[in-house]
Design goal:
This protein is an alpha/beta fold. The protein has two domains: 113 residues, Rossmann fold (3-Layer(aba) Sandwich); 122 residues, Rossmann fold (3-Layer(aba) Sandwich), CATH 3.40.50.1400. It contains eight helices and eight strands; from the N terminus they run E-H-E-H-E-H-E-H-E-H-E-H-E-H-E-H. Pfam families: CbiX.
Length: 250
């Protein structure tokens, strides 16, 4: 019997993984697999081993591990394979495959567009204000892995017609978010619509990004900065996951 395990990063804020757990339930309801569970690499529980053990206990003979990550960064390329190897050693009778991460997907882009529209419903009506789009991502030491985020930014700019747009990072890559805001202001932006391109509401969304944006507002008192909601829970993510599950394993 096949099973699916969604694997997210995890957070010290235990409730941040609730959306992923709910999506595992939706996968079961839609018949993606008779067994679907969720687990975490760090901080939160269940761990990947605990999630797989639950699948095995329910009768699973194979498991597809779906990285619940937007990009193919360090956690997907380096950390997850080691955890999967440990699981394979613990359950030698189990067939294990790993699907690709989310990457660029038009339904993911559509969710991002909807989040922007929640705070800026009609970007074309800016009342003469030079408006800018800022997509805020985490960043990764594997800089090439950020390409899907840059594609999302380009797609969103095409759909919204913001005259200015930038992709910026919390860590590891440039431009950093604070620098990107300064650059957009220097280019004449009077309004910035900032999208947190994150799946979970962990420490970065609760503490780091609010601090960065508050400092930016202090530096640029005449600049309006609107923060859109993060991606969070959305049923369209079930379609994204289903598509990735159907692709060749890593």
């Amino acid at each position: 019997m096949n099973s699916i395990v969604l694997i997210g990063h995890g957070s010290l804020h235990s409730d941040s993984g609730a959306s992923m757990i709910r999506l595992a339930a939706r996968l079961r309801e839609r018949g993606a697999a008779p067994i679907a569970e969720a687990g975490f690499l760090n901080f939160s529980r269940p761990t990947i081993t605990e999630a797989v053990a639950k699948c095995v206990g329910a009768g699973a003979t194979s498991v597809t591990v779906q990285p619940y990550f937007l990009i193919d960064g360090v956690y997907v390329q380096q950390d997850l394979p080691g955890d999967v190897a440990k699981v394979a050693a613990q359950f030698p009778e189990l067939t294990i495959r790993v699907s690709p991460c989310f990457g660029f997907h038009k339904k993911l882009a559509a969710i991002a567009l909807e989040r922007l529209q929640a705070v800026d419903p009609d970007p074309s009506r800016s009342n003469g204000t030079q408006a800018a789009l800022l997509v805020m991502a985490h960043g990764t030491p594997l800089a090439h892995a950020n390409e899907p985020v840059r594609r999302i930014t380009a797609w969103l700019q095409e759909k919204t017609r913001y005259p200015l747009a930038a992709t910026a990072y919390l860590d590891c890559n440039t431009p950093r978010i604070a620098d990107a805001i300064d650059n957009l202001a220097a280019q004449g932006a009077r309004k910035i619509v900032a999208l947190p391109y994150f799946l979970h509401r962990g420490r970065h969304l609760r503490q780091d990004l609010p601090h960065i944006l508050a400092e930016a507002r202090s530096r640029h008192p005449s600049l309006t900065i609107l923060e859109a909601p993060h991606l969070d829970y959305d049923l369209r993510l079930v379609d994204v996951i289903s598509d990735r599950l159907s692709e060749p394993a890593l």
